[in-house]
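Researcher: I'd like a structural prediction for the single chain below. Treat it as a standalone chain; there are no partners to consider.
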Amino acid sequence: MSNTSVTKVQSKDSPHGSMGQKYLAAGTDLAMRLWECKKPGDLGAMTSRDYETVGYVISGRAELHTGGQMVRLEPGDSWSVPKGAEHAYRILETFTAVEPTSPPAFAHGRDE
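Model: Treating it as a single chain, here is the predicted structure.
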């Protein structure tokens, strides 16, 4: 028999990660996090992660730098970063976005 339970997470009660992300609902293969009101700043350090990320911009603007490309992200845009791809973000205007990750970013220290 498969797991048929449903999980609800209230954002106000969600834990935060060390980079300022808010962890939302999570399953065994997929998790969601929220980047809320991230302030403008310089290009962050290039990093790669052991998970795939897709995202959706709720508000603000940012640049995503990866693979020699720069992609500008604006409200209503979505993006993907493959597992293991080096990338960095530059926040241009106070930025809020939601990102599902697979496997869950918070598990097994993947976000650290």
